[in-house]
Write a structure and sequence with these properties.
Elements: H1 2-17, H2 22-34, H3 40-54, E1 59-61, H4 62-67, H5 69-73, H6 81-92, H7 100-109, E2 113-114, E3 122-125, E4 128-131, H8 132-149, H9 158-167, H10 177-185, E5 190-195, H11 201-217, E6 228-232, H12 235-250, H13 256-260, E7 267-268, H14 269-273, E8 294-297, H15 305-314, E9 320-325, H16 338-342, H17 353-363, E10 381-384, H18 395-404, H19 408-416, E11 432-434, H20 441-453, H21 461-469, H22 478-489, E12 492-496, H23 505-517, E13 530-533, E14 547-552, E15 558-563, E16 573-576, E17 584-586, E18 589-591, E19 600-607, H24 617-624, E20 627-635, H25 640-645
Parallel strand pairs: 2-3, 5-9, 5-10, 6-7, 6-8, 8-9, 11-20, 12-18, 12-19, 19-20
Antiparallel strand pairs: 1-4, 3-4, 13-14, 13-17, 14-15, 15-16
Helix pairs in contact: 1-3, 2-3, 8-15, 9-11, 10-11, 10-17, 18-19, 18-24, 21-22
This protein binds adenosine-5'-triphosphate.
Keywords: ATP-binding, DNA damage, DNA repair, DNA-binding, Exonuclease, Helicase, Hydrolase, Isomerase, Nuclease, Nucleotide-binding
Organism: Methylomonas rosea
GO molecular function: exodeoxyribonuclease V activity
Length: 650
């Protein structure tokens, strides 16, 4: 008992430092209630597991914990890394008493732990300690995907080859991964199409759907019209997907009757599953499945473990699931990097003999066997590799590639060859910028200010001008105006790696508000304040990450205008009183995490003065690839960018 009290004391100290939360401590209390004589190792393991869940990790990896406790637990927190590193190392040393064997021995003997099915709160599998709920989600995902991997047909009709030929007449790519994606996705009820920005995921999807519709219509035994549903994790992502699908369909040379069967509007996953009020309990589940033949989810890297389990659990057994997304992006904010995990090994295209034969027979592509065989999921995973949006001259494309490959030297060399901002006018072909001189905090701040107040589209001036110059004088035009302001806001976005500190979103938003409104702290709500929802509000139908802008409506009242992402909604804008929005934060600067699923014409990525474990290659890559036309790197201290590129969490 004395030893238990000592553990709790240490935990209190960690809570005071902000390394653990009260919730983590409460979880330990819950474990103690169930097992009053729990050992210190079990209590620590419980607290650290709870801490990992807060950080978006699904389990506590005991092996990594033993090897690199600070890095594994991200203690101290990112914004205090520089100052608290030594103290944290000394505190973490107390965990050094435990080896992987002693952790496992203690957990194995505890009544709180089992190794699979059961009722214990904790589950140990190998070196991974899970909370039962998350272990269960993984089981559901695994079982539902495995069931869908079974081929649904052992051959494709000959009429399909002709259609494929028409859809993919010639290709600049060799092999043609888009064509391969189509033929593989026709084989089973599950497929993942992953690729960086502009690699043709949406284009491929529309062709695939056209083929699937033909196949269903031509089925001699049971011709049918497919019920196809399209979804994305957030409202913003759903709106972007709808836009991309509509564009891809406009460019697709197929019969109008087939096009009519392809949905142009995506809903959010919450809506697809039928979200109940204030909860993640959905109307659709295995007892009441969704009615669909094909479900497509874009921006799948944003799906967390719980949502993926809910989705798979609610799919009817015969429905086909197609996931689209960029596996190299950051994982979801909630626990679980499902897409990254499912796509492990996708680069190698490690197909087995049956898959290679299928590809050769139907796509006419003879791929070389990989050195080692990939997993069963790899057989239905296709990585698109050629960006059609960023050509070889595009700085954004080159930079994203170098970052993704962990090539810090190449990334630096691209940036040192950069355009700069003599008068904030980009050179004609350059689409990326960085401070040319040695970065310092002052230089970064002054460039950021210049950018932010820039009256053109490179900064927020353009957006502010839309508010003032385009204000309508009739109530009817208010929605149109709000849409215009929201679109203008998407032209530029400041992104930060961190939340706190002068280079985190809190500090940046404060400075940007002062620069733009030339007033130090004014009222919390003012016209032009962009806000991001920070917690799902099922009553208002606003989801974490949705962005709205405070505007005066036709009656002069300040309201927040949100784009209506419901595909069936008649009104394009929803006006919500600020009083009804307790969980929002200013969004001139947002975290890279929160920017997922969105794209902006110009992105300014701000890096802090010190590296910390959260500033990783995936984060930099995600930040860069949010930019459609131009990208600016603002390093407040030399070296952080390069170090981040060398830090890979995979
Ligand atoms: N095989 C191709 N040949 C030529 N152009 C293509 C090809 N595939 C896609 N494109 C073009 O590249 C652009 C990007 O394609 P698409 O929107 O399908 O990519 P994406 O991977 O879905 O992009 P995002 O990153 O926005 O999700 C579009 O203009 C599209 O017409």
């Amino acid at each position: 008992m004395i030893r238990q009290a000592a553990v709790i004391d240490s935990m209190q100290h960690w809570i005071a430092k902000g390394w653990l939360s009260h919730l983590n401590r409460a979880f330990v209390g819950f474990l103690l209630d169930l097992e009053p004589d729990a050992t210190e190792a079990v209590l620590w393991a419980g607290a650290l597991l709870s801490h990992q869940l807060d950080r978006g990790e699904v389990y506590l990896d005991l092996e990594k914990l033993c090897e690199q406790p600070g890095l594994t637990l991200a203690i101290p927190a990112d914004d205090a890394w520089a100052v608290e590193q030594d103290e944290a190392a000394a505190e973490l040393a107390r965990l050094k008493d435990y080896s992987i064997e002693t952790w496992k021995a203690a957990l194995t003997q505890s009544r709180l732990v089992s190794f699979g099915e059961g009722v214990t709160p904790l589950v140990l599998t190998g070196n991974r300690l899970y909370l039962r709920r998350y272990w269960h989600y993984e089981q559901i995902i695994q079982a539902c995907i495995m069931q869908r991997l079974q081929p649904v047909r052992d051959s494709l009709p000959s009429s399909l080859s002709e259609r494929l030929q028409r859809l993919f007449p010639t290709s600049s790519e060799s092999p043609d991964w888009q064509k391969i994606a189509c033929v593989l996705a026709l084989r089973a009820r599950f497929a993942i199409i992953t690729g960086g920005p502009g690699t043709g995921k949406t284009t491929t999807l529309t062709k695939l759907l056209a083929l699937l519709i033909h196949l269903a219509q031509e089925d001699s035994e049971n011709p049918k019209t497919l019920n196809i549903l399209l979804a994305a994790p957030t409202g913003k992502a759903a709106a972007r997907v709808s836009e991309s699908i509509a564009k891809a369909l406009d460019n697709l040379a197929i019969d109008e009757s087939i096009k009519q069967c392809i949905p142009r509007k995506a809903s959010t996953l919450h809506r697809l599953l039928g979200s109940g009020h204030d909860s993640r309990r959905f109307q659709h589940n295995r007892h009441n499945p969704i009615v669909a033949d094909i479900v497509i989810v874009d921006e799948a890297s944003m799906i967390d473990l719980e949502m993926m389990a809910s989705l798979l659990g609610a799919l009817p057994a015969n429905a086909q699931l197609i996931l689209l997304g960029d596996k190299d992006q950051l994982a979801s904010v909630e626990a679980g990097s499902v897409m990254g995990d499912l796509c492990r090994g996708a680069e190698q295209a490690a197909y087995d003999a049956a898959t290679l034969a299928w590809i050769a027979d139907y796509a006419g592509e003879r791929l070389k066997p990989a050195a080692a065989l990939g997993s069963a999921i790899n057989q239905q995973t296709i990585m698109l590799r050629h960006s059609h949006r960023f050509d070889e001259h595009s700085g954004i494309g080159q930079l994203a590639r170098a970052v993704n490959q962990g090539d810090a030297l190449q990334a630096q060399s691209i940036l040192s060859d950069t355009a700069h901002y003599p008068d904030l006018r980009p050179e004609p072909r350059a689409d990326y910028f960085a401070l040319r001189q040695r970065p310092t905090a002052d230089a970064a701040n002054s460039l950021l200010r210049k950018l932010v107040i820039n009256e053109g589209v490179l900064g927020y001036g353009y957006y502010l001008a839309q508010i003032g110059d385009c204000r309508p004088n009739t109530a009817e035009r208010c929605d149109e105006w709000a849409l215009q302001v929201l679109a203008a806001f998407d032209a530029f976005q400041v992104l930060s790696a961190l939340r706190r500190g002068p280079w985190g979103v809190e500090g940046l938003n404060q400075r940007i508000e002062e620069w733009l409104f030339a007033r130090s702290k004014q009222a919390l709500w003012y016209e032009g304040r962009p806000v991001m929802i920070t917690r799902n509000d099922y009553n208002l139908g606003l989801m974490n990450g949705d962005i709205g802008i405070a505007l005066r409506d036709s009656s002069g009242k300040l309201k927040v205008a949100f784009p209506n992402t419901d595909p069936l909604a008649a009104l394009k804008i929803r006006w919500v009183s600020p009083m009804r929005l307790p969980d929002v934060e200013t969004a001139f600067a947002i975290t890279v995490h929160k920017s997922q699923g969105s794209e902006f014409n110009h992105v300014a990525l701000v890096l802090p003065e010190n590296i910390s474990p959260v500033i990783t290659r995936e984060l930099i890559y995600t930040g860069i690839t949010r930019a459609k036309e131009s990208f600016t790197l603002l390093e407040s201290c030399d070296g952080v960018f390069s170090k981040a590129i060398l830090t890979c969490r995979k």
